Amino acid sequence: MITDLIIIFVLHYIGDFLLQPREIATKKSKSIIVLLEHGLYYGMFMLFVGIFFFRCNGVGFLQFVGVNTLLHVVTDFFTSKLTTHFYLKDKHKAFFDTIGVDQLIHIITILLTYKYFLI
What we know:
By secondary structure, the protein is mainly α. The protein contains five helices and no strands. The longest helix is centred in the middle third of the chain and has 30 residues, at 59-88.
């Protein structure tokens, strides 16, 4: 279980940060299409790489990825607007605090959906 969560958190980090081009990071707060593109990349990465790491239990794993991707997009819809606002106002602490809250919401979402769909 702990190993699974570590793998999921590493995949989340890669999918949410390392594979997100700067253009998507800066435009997802202004364009629902760009936000959905980010969600698509994130979800596909989690799905295809996750299948490699996990003994996929079929529907539960697909539900886990699908619900996480949906909730990821909903979270980013709000937090990307806040981070953009704070960035443009030079409110650096609020900007980084919002990124922290964004990641906290993603972690809680992953933990709850892991428990619900994969345990």
